[in-house]
Design brief:
Shape: globular
Mean pLDDT: 80
Strand order of the largest sheet: 7-8-9-6-10
Largest sheet: 5 strands, parallel
CATH architecture of the largest domain: 3-Layer(aba) Sandwich
Strand content: 5-15%
């Protein structure tokens, strides 16, 4: 390849990146486009190298239009783009394995003293760091096998986090730009599942790597015991020698200054030595409380990914996946009813499913929609909070005998427009969604249109007997 050719393909890709950068959010650009490297330009076809197969999946699914436009802008109508995707192979560079005098994962109580002679380990003779070939301690990863990527249902609510996690899991530990990786969400939305899935796939791809999952409670317990028994150095040394550290629910270290100090030193060491760090919390680094400024600064270095509440289609997919894994069948109408009524988080969705199964098994009842309605109130804490906009639309559409899809169109026909206004009225009454979100889900209307619709329906309820009857009938049906 000539020098001019090399300059050409790099220049073309830089121009493409400049266009893409102006047309996608900054986080998307930094995450999915900046790491791509140009390889060659031949026969009006630009070849670029992707860091992993996860990039190929995401680009094909989510970025075809902007990439095609950028390429045609630079290379003309006949311009093409070709991806060079690496095949995941174990790295030749094996992670460091060490025999430690104290393993806090399995020996929280009464750990032995730190040996005075740095060339010795307690009861093990010479330090294996100095004499290669001595058998290393088997450190359990604490990962749960069922919490893998196959069982993690992808949806709009978690797509970015899952794809980033996949990219991390397919690469040499610590080699991606996504280090640290910070996952946050409300409880029960899958952050722990995703953290385990990343760890499991890393362990499968790089079996020599030391992958360790630890809850913040256990980390705190280990730290407290290490200080009490004068083994602080052993504690820090242990964590400095893992290749992938996953700390779950780090918010529970808030206000624990001494523990945060230990975490700070461990974090710095792992970061400097290109070890992968994965952290989960219930809030973003900008919102988390009780942490020292220097620790928060480290957390803010992370690639931050939020998991939100799953939409209706994702909730249905989650139920189907859990039922499939259990070898159990539910009628489709029961699955849909559960997905419509239980919207807060995946944990409550699974709890409702288990309750129906238990009631059916213990009392020898058939699994029906009536049984589901009978059991659901135990798992829906607040009807006003839990009724979803999808459920409202389904109930309104059934009442007026129209298709749910028509409510989300922009048609102004009275037989659709008025049910759409009723949906807005109930959504304002029974959900905590902002008016703009309600409008977006009801024909892509703005917040002023939603406010007007709510006033119109409220007025009609007071003055129109038929409207009052319709509203009361739908309201009663939604609360069944």
């Amino acid at each position: 390849m000539t020098e001019s050719t090399a300059i050409d393909h790099r220049t073309v890709w830089q121009n493409c990146l400049a266009f893409i950068k102006d047309n996608v959010p900054p986080n998307t650009y930094n995450m999915w486009f900046a790491p791509i490297e140009p390889v060659s330009l031949k026969d009006n076809c630009l070849t670029v190298a992707l860091p992993s197969h996860a990039y190929f999946e995401w680009l094909e699914r989510s970025a075809q239009k902007v990439i095609r436009t950028a390429i045609r802008k630079e290379l003309g109508a006949t311009g093409r783009l070709k991806y060079k995707v690496p095949v995941a192979e174990p790295t030749d560079k094996k992670p460091i394995t060490v025999t430690l005098p104290w393993n806090p994962v399995t020996h929280v109580q009464n750990p032995p003293r730190m040996p005075r002679n740095p060339y010795e380990t307690a009861g093990e003779g010479l330090n294996p760091d100095l004499l290669p070939g001595i058998k290393a301690v088997n450190i359990p990863s604490n990962l749960v096998e069922s919490l893998n990527f196959d069982n993690f249902v992808e949806g709009k609510c978690n797509q970015f986090a899952r794809l980033a996690g996949k990219a991390i899991a397919q690469a040499v530990p610590g080699s991606t730009p996504y280090n640290p990786f910070f996952i946050y969400s409300d409880t029960g939305l899958g952050k722990t599942h995703l953290a385990h899935a990343i760890g499991l796939e890393l362990k499968a791809n790089y079996p020599d790597a030391i992958v360790l999952y630890v809850s913040s409670d256990l980390f705190l317990q280990q730290f407290t015991e290490a200080r009490r028994s004068n083994n602080y150095n052993d504690f820090v040394y242990f964590y400095q020698n893992v290749d992938v550290l996953i700390i779950d629910d780090i918010q529970f270290l808030g206000g624990k200054d001494k523990t945060q100090e230990a975490f700070f030193h461990i974090f710095n060491y792992l970061q400097q030595h290109k070890k992968q760090i994965i952290i989960t919390a219930d809030k973003s680094p900008a919102e988390i409380k009780g942490f020292e400024a220097r620790v928060l600064a480290r957390l803010k270095w992370s690639l931050v990914a939020e998991l939100t509440a799953p939409d209706l289609d994702t909730r249905i997919a989650i139920l189907n996946k859990k039922l499939e894994n259990s070898g159990i069948e539910f009628p489709n109408e029961v699955i849909e009813y559960l997905a419509l009524r239980v919207t807060a988080n995946v944990r409550e969705l699974e709890g409702a499913m288990i309750a129906i199964l238990a009631q059916s098994s213990i009392n020898h009842k058939e699994i029906t929609i009536d049984l589901a309605k009978e059991m659901i109130d135990k798992y829906v804490k607040s009807t006003a909070r839990e009724i979803s906009i999808e459920y409202i639309q389904k109930m309104v559409a059934e009442h007026f005998n129209i298709a749910v899809e028509t409510i989300n169109t922009s048609t102004r026909r009275r037989e659709v427009a008025q049910p759409r206004q009723i949906c807005m009225y109930f959504a304002k009454k029974y959900t905590k969604l902002p008016l703009s979100t309600i409008g977006k889900n009801c024909g892509n209307k703005d917040h002023a249109t939603v406010l007007h619709a709510c006033r119109v329906i409220a007025d009609l309820y007071e003055t129109d007997k038929k409207m009052r009857a319709d509203i009361d009938a739908i309201d009663k049906k939604m609360k069944l």
